[in-house]
Amino acid sequence: MSLRNRLSGLFKGQSELDLTDGSIPKSLFFLSLPIVITNLLQVSYNLADTFWLGRYSTEALAAISLGFPLVYLFISLGLGLTVAGSVLVAQHTGADDAAAAEYAASQTVSLTLLAGMGFGMFGFVFVADLLQVFGAEPAVLGPATDYMEVISLGLPFLFGFTVFIALMRGAGDTITPMFVMLGTVVLNIAIDPLLIFGVGPIPELGVEGAAIATVLSRGSAMIVGLWLMLRGSHGIRINPQEMIPDAEYVRKILRLGVPASIENTGRAISVNAVLVIVTLFATPVVAAFGVGIRVFSMIFMPAIAIDRGVETMTGQNIGAGRQDRVVATNRFAAKTSFLILSTLGVLTFIFAPDIIRLFDDSPAVVAEGATFLRWIAPTFGFVGVLRAYSGGFRGAGKTLTAAAIAVLLFGFIRLPIAYIASQDLIPVDVWFLGTRTPTGIWFAFAVSGIIAATVAASWFELGTWRGTDLSGSSDDADQSGGDATQGESVGETDPGPTTSEA
Predict the structure, then answer these.
(1) How many Cα atoms are found within 13 Å in the side-chain-facing hemisphere of 369?
(2) 438 φ, ψ to 5°?
């Protein structure tokens, strides 16, 4: 009996789930659980790098702390395309239009790979200049540049596996990507220390070795993912003859994908901009911020999984004309995400120093990292609410709405508060205010999360995501806002299958 069969009681495959009917909690659980595991495995790439480089040197850890937000920025630019593909596949699947779903998937794969090559070449050429913006110490800047140059060359592989996960998810298959990820994580963990520290004929490569291990592992994952989609035996099928870029269809993917890229890029720019403020402090603060962000990413895996599950369920139910289930799914997901993340927040608050110490046992890094975690831990539940409703907006095709929340709230609230509260610019001496301290940065993270959740929930309840249908005949489109999915058919006349976008 295969491992997959043995786990059938815990996981439900695509053929066993009807996301447009039946129990919402059950569907969301079986859809999201493999996403949680997949995301935890994906984060383990970064955690493995952080673990081994933390033992290599503090400068090496600070180097990937400096490079990680830039990696996130590059990937975020491509994620919008994968979101567009996922939403289109989900809606066409819900409408029971397999040909349209396959055409959308094929076009998305080719466009995403091209984007990965373009961003990779740009990153390799300009990464040194981009990193200099952060003003880090020379001992950190050099290794960070080496790390980012390798990652930049490997962006097509990173993009390729990301689009595989997204398209499978849109079709309702989240188990296959989980198993593929498991195999490649084992590969990464095996070769990471060998390339970082060197062994036998393998030279000691330090930070650059960690980057090479990540690219090799994700490259193998991309190859397996593309092979599975070409076979079409799981999730979604792609057809080579439909992968030739169709200018008209590419334009339609971009109308959905660009706002989604703006959402992800807005989050990434926020982290990068905050990093500029963080680098105004000593190297231990930079290292603490890097470790904290990675822990932050790991803690939020359940919320991100629910976000993606809601995105898929919303898309399929809109395709099936079940807007009642859209409302119920989003509200249930928000409540569930709040409870799960709040519980994790309590545990993080209690064990904050021990968590940081797993990655860097330097007393200065542990002290500042624990302070960071204890400021943001009580607000974890609110970020869970934000992610749940953001998934609903994207699944409904309202990618511009999700982008507006991310950019306006994180860019125009978190960043100004972080700078003002940390740089002794307030003429009062209350609590940490009135002093130059990184505590102001941690305070900004907490405040922006609460505000963002409140706005997202209120915006969803206004019902502005309604009024869409797959026939493209929506009357109440949000054309003034430029939301691609309302009031404009995705399948106006295509050389490929006739499709339309909600």
Answers:
(1) 32
(2) -65, -10
Q: Say how far apart CA 191 and CA 48 lie, in whole Å.
A: 10
For residue 183, being part of any structural domain is answered with yes
Which residues are paired to 202 by β-bridges? 199
Packing angle, helices 323-350 and 283-299, rounded to 10: 140
State the residue range of the domain holding 433.
24-481
3-state secondary structure of 250: helix
| 398 falls within a domain | yes
Q: How many domains are contained in the chain? A: 1
Assign 347 to helix, strand or coil.
helix
pLDDT computed for residue 502 by the predictor? 27
CA distance 492 to 470: 12
Largest CA distance in the chain: 69
Structure tokens at 228: 């599975």
By CB atoms closer than 10 A (0-12, 13-18, 19+), residue 378 is middle
pLDDT band at 59 (very low <50, low <70, confident <90, very high): confident
Give the other-Cβ count within 10 Å of 80's Cβ.
26
What whole-number distance in Å separates Cα of residue 177 and Cα of residue 165?
A: 6
Residue 219: which of 189, 184, 251 has the closest Cα? 184
Q: Is residue 500 part of a domain?
A: no
**pLDDT for 194-236, tens place per residue?**
998 988 888 888 888 988 998 999 899 999 999 999 998 777 8
Residue 192 near residue 206 (C-beta atoms within 8 A): no
Q: 17: which 2 tokens?
A: 């789930």
Which pLDDT tens digit goes with each residue over 395-423?
988 888 888 888 877 778 888 888 888 88
Residue 16 in domain? no
Average pLDDT over residues 272-278: 84
